[in-house]
Please model this.
Amino acid sequence: MIKAERGTKDVFDEQMLKFEKIERAGREVFTSANVQKISTPIFEVTELFARGVGDSTDIVNKEMYTFKIHEGNSLTLRPENTAGVVRAYIEHGFSRISPPQKFWYFGPMFRYERPQAGRQRQFHQMGVEVFGSDSPYTDIEVITLAINILKKLGLNDLEVEINSLGCAKCRDNYKTAIKAVLAPYLDKLCPDCNMRYEKNPLRILDCKCEECQRIFALDNVKEVIFSDFICDECKEQFDIICNELSALGVKYNVNKLLVRGLDYYNRLVFEVKSNNLGSQNAVIGGGRYDGLVGQLGGEATPAVGWALGVERLASLIPTIEAEKLDYFVVSKYTTEAFKTVCMLRESGKSADFDPKSRKFNKQLEKASKVAKYAVIIGEDEIAQGFYTVKNLETGEQVQKKEL
Ligand SMILES: [Zn+2]
Ligand SMILES: [Zn+2]
Model:
């Protein structure tokens, strides 16, 4: 028997209902905010991700599904969707249209990770990317979209973790300071952090290694990590975001260690956490990436976005029961049953029947599982031209001339 590949899962039944509910919540919230849906290919040239996600990230270093086709181009299954949407934004000249341009997406992503609880090699993300505005009100807008979607899905106990990574100017000073204070401890930091030290020292703060954490806790290191390094302009923007969150009654928490796993972020980075089901879970993460469009060959364009893990979110929302059909037609007269089903479907009702006309009891049993009403067509019904309609919840039965 051929089975689904390790780290991949078929989506059906309740899980599919949850996926659809999540996408529907997204569609409603995004549409109400003038965000258009975009679908980009699931594979792109490898260079897009190497340049767009960042070659100091775990994603690019260890987790990409890369393959060569005969013409020789190296292709990669998308490990995330920001790089693809940025590529599309540049390719189709969206920068010529009055900004901001807002896009959302929903689809599968691929990372070659060791499969474990909550981690799959093919997983799904829904996300939003907004181009062409450096206003902090755009930052707060995208955070609000995230919160509205989660609320629509019944997650109410939400908390936003937020940080500013600064702009190109002030961030460089911070990087220099971090590198200087960590230099004496390089041999104690893990191999990943040693690699990040050259390529993207801020990512070191993201390290979960015990030994690395111990070094971050040293007084002199802590002092640098928690220093107020951001410039006046960055500070002003960050304050607006925080004030607006308070005004909206959103619980938030400034977390200086929040840098997110990707290389391209600047200024705003954030995560939305839910306290549903007892434990705290980050369900949405994102931030500003003002340099990425330029870095991938477009005109310099400020941008901000987020993504959510659909599988993780699905595990947090309440159980959903499949909606029942309006009618199930029970009859040994297949032609008559089929005709009735077609008539019901055409009039906008949902209906099904048994194409093999099994025994009455078998058909009724199926009807009780999937439908609200059974339409029974027997000898008498055909002879006298009526339907027997049975309410499958109460058992009540009536005769009707028309459905
Ligand atoms: Zn700055
Ligand atoms: Zn480390």
Remarks:
- The chain has a mean pLDDT of 92.
